[in-house]
C-alpha cells in the first residue's frame, strides 16, 4: 500500500505543477496588467493636472468637480438611460432567437449558432460604419422610403440621434446577449416541460412557470454583458449620434485626448466604475433571488 502511494506521489506533484504552469500566464496578466491599470487610474484620479503624464500633488478637486457640475450628472444619466434602452432592446430581441435555438432548431442548431457568432468575424468599427451608411441622409433607409413612395425627400431624422445610438449598439451586442440566454435555456431539463404538459399546463403557462424563471440567470448575465460596456461606449455616439447623444465615455476620451487632463479623466472613469459596480451588485442580488425561487 505504501509503495502504491509512493508511486502516485510524483504523478500528483507533476499534475499540480502542470496546472500551476497553465494558470501562471493568466495570473500574470490579471495582476500585472489589469490591477496595475486600475491602480494607476485610482492614483491619477487624486492628482492635480499640471500638463504632465502623472499630474502633481494629491487632491479631491476632480471628484468635487464631477459631483458639483450638472453637466456630468446630465451626461451620466443620459449614458445610463441609453445603456438601459440598449439592454432592454437587445435582451428582448435575443430571447426569441435563443429560445428557438434551444428548443426548435434541431439539426440546424450548429449552423444557426455559427451565424450568430459570424459578426465577431468583422470589426466593430465596420459594423458601426455600416449603420451610419444605412441611416445617413442619402443612405439605404432614406432611399428605400423614397423608392417605396412613403416619403418624397430624404430626412435627417435617423442619423445623429439617440435612437440611432440605441439601434446600432443593440445590433452590435446582440450576439453577446443571445449566447448566455441560449446556454441557460439549453440547460433546462426537458423533463420539466414534459411534466408541465402532463399536468395540463398550456404552452404559455409552461413558458411562464417553467422556462422563464429557469432562464433568468442567463437573462441577467446577458443584461450585464450588454449594459456594462455600453455605458462607457464612445465610438458609437461619435459616429452615429449627435450632441444630444453624448455619453460619459465621450467625455472621458476627450479628457485623455484633446483636453490633456488625465487626472480628471481618471476621476470620471472611477465614478463610472462605481456606478457599474452598484449595477452589478444589484444584478447579483437579483440572480440570487431567482436562484432561490427556482
From TrEMBL:
Membrane topology designation: Multi-pass membrane protein
Signal peptide segment: none
Coiled-coil region list: none
GO CC annotation terms, alphabetical: plasma membrane
Transmembrane segments: 20-46, 80-103, 110-130, 163-185, 206-228, 264-283
Entry-linked InterPro entries: MetI-like (IPR000515), MetI-like_sf (IPR035906)
GO biological process, one term: transmembrane transport
Matching PROSITE patterns: ABC_TM1
Keywords for the protein's UniProt record, in alphabetical order: Cell membrane, Membrane, Transmembrane, Transmembrane helix, Transport
Superkingdom per UniProt: Bacteria
UniProt subcellular location: Cell membrane
Family per similarity comment: Belongs to the binding-protein-dependent transport system permease family. CysTW subfamily.
Stored PANTHER family: INNER MEMBRANE ABC TRANSPORTER PERMEASE PROTEIN YDCU-RELATED, INNER MEMBRANE ABC TRANSPORTER PERMEASE PROTEIN YDCU-RELATED-RELATED
Protein name: ABC transporter permease
Amino acid at each position: 500500500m505504501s509503495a502504491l502511494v509512493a508511486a502516485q506521489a510524483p504523478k500528483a506533484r507533476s499534475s499540480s505543477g502542470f496546472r500551476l504552469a497553465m494558470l501562471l500566464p493568466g495570473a500574470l496578466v490579471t495582476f500585472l496588467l489589469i490591477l496595475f491599470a486600475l491602480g494607476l487610474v485610482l492614483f491619477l484620479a487624486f492628482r492635480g493636472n499640471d500638463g504632465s503624464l502623472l499630474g502633481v500633488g494629491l487632491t479631491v478637486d476632480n471628484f468635487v468637480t464631477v459631483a458639483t457640475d450638472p453637466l456630468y450628472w446630465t451626461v451620466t444619466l443620459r449614458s445610463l438611460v441609453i445603456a438601459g434602452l440598449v439592454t432592454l432592446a437587445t435582451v428582448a430581441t435575443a430571447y426569441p432567437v435563443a429560445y428557438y435555438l434551444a428548443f426548435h432548431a434541431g439539426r440546424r442548431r450548429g449552423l444557426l449558432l455559427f451565424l450568430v457568432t459570424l459578426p465577431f468575424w468583422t470589426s466593430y468599427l465596420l459594423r458601426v460604419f455600416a449603420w451610419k451608411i444605412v441611416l445617413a441622409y442619402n443612405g439605404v433607409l432614406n432611399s428605400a422610403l423614397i423608392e417605396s413612395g412613403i416619403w418624397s425627400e430624404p430626412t435627417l431624422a435617423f442619423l445623429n440621434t439617440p435612437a440611432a445610438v440605441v439601434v446600432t449598439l443593440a445590433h452590435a451586442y446582440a450576439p453577446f446577449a443571445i449566447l448566455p440566454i441560449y446556454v441557460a435555456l439549453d440547460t433546462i431539463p426537458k423533463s420539466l416541460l414534459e411534466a408541465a404538459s402532463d399536468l395540463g399546463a398550456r404552452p404559455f403557462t409552461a413558458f411562464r412557470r417553467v422556462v422563464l424563471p429557469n432562464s433568468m440567470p442567463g437573462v441577467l448575465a446577458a443584461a450585464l454583458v450588454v449594459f456594462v460596456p455600453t455605458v462607457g461606449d464612445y465610438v458609437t455616439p461619435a459616429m452615429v449620434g449627435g450632441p444630444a447623444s453624448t455619453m460619459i465615455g465621450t467625455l472621458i476620451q476627450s479628457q485623455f485626448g484633446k483636453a490633456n487632463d488625465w487626472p480628471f479623466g481618471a476621476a470620471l472613469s472611477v465614478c463610472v466604475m462605481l456606478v457599474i459596480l452598484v449595477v452589478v451588485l444589484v444584478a447579483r442580488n437579483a440572480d440570487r433571488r431567482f436562484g432561490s425561487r427556482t
